[in-house]
Amino acid sequence: MRIGQGYDVHRFAPQADKRPLILGGTHIPYGCGLAGHSDADVLAHAISDALLGAAALGDIGGHFPDTEAAYKDADSLVLLSKVCEMVRRAGFEICNIDATVVAQAPRLSGFIPEMRKRLAAAAGTDAGRVSVKATTEEGLGFTGEGLGISAHAVVLLDE
């Protein structure tokens, strides 16, 4: 068995950029999205890093660098699918994914079932193996001040 941990954070983009907010491959209605080279899906990025870490395959930035034009505005669920292919080629299967999104706003509880479904499909696993939770930081820190969103993920792989 292998355990991996992932973390990602993105600040909110200026409203003038009109970026959509995408978390777990799900469009969340909100006034602005997250800044980033790809679609800035912090949840998919944290899960990707956890999977790569568990398999000792590096990190998402090493495989999909933000210096590559090919990844500009990339769909992070497509990148997650590629990560899962790498993990499986390395001889591992996904046992479970457990992730937490940290955001003062917007409220995410109503979107979690869709996030779980989309993440599971991208990972090639059953939604029953994917847990997504959301929390705030009670007004404290970067996310609590509403400057951005972060995500933490833990995965378990089996050889």
Q: What's the total count of β strands? A: 6
Strands of the biggest beta sheet: in what spatial order? 1-6-4-5
Distance between the termini: 6 Å
> Averaged pLDDT, please?
96
What are the segments in which pLDDT stays under 50 over at least 5 consecutive residues? Answer: none
Tell me, what's the shape? globular
The Cα radius of gyration reads: 15 Å
Q: Which structural class is indicated by helix and strand composition?
A: alpha+beta
Beta-strand residue fraction: 25-35%
Summarize the model shown.
This protein has helices at 42-54, 60-63, 76-89, 112-123, 141-144; strands at residues 2-11, 21-23, 26-28, 93-102, 130-135, 148-158. The mean pLDDT is 96. It is globular.
Could you characterize the architecture of this molecule?
This protein is an alpha+beta fold and 159 residues long. Helices cover 30% and strands 27% of the residues. It is built from 5 helices and 6 strands. Strands 1-6-4-5 form a 4-stranded mixed sheet. Strand 4 (93-102), helix 4 (112-123) and strand 5 form a beta-alpha-beta unit. Helix 1 runs parallel beside helix 3 (76-89) and helix 3 (76-89) packs across helix 4. The chain is globular. The relative contact order is 0.26.
Write the topology of this structure.
Elements: E1 2-11, E2 21-23, E3 26-28, H1 42-54, H2 60-63, H3 76-89, E4 93-102, H4 112-123, E5 130-135, H5 141-144, E6 148-158
Parallel strand pairs: 4-5
Antiparallel strand pairs: 1-6, 2-3, 4-6
